Amino acid sequence: MLTWRKQGLIFSVNNNPPLREGVGFAQSPQTLEFDDFIRIYFSTRERDPGNGKFVSRVCFVDMDKSLRTVLKRGAEPVIGHAELGAFDEHGIFPMNVLRHQDRLLAWTTGWNRRVSVSVDTAIGLAESFDNGATFIRHGSGPVLAASQYEPCLVGDGFVQHLNGLFHMWYIFGTGWKQRDNKTPPDRIYKIAHATSDDGINWQRNSQPIIPDVLGVDECQALPTVIQIGNRYHMIFCFRECFDFRTGTGKGYRLGYASSDDLIHWQRDDAQVPLPGAPGEWDSEMQCYPHLFRSNGKVWLLYNGNAFGKEGFGAAELLL
Question: Quick check: 137 and 79 in contact, CB under 8 A?
Answer without folding.
Answer: yes
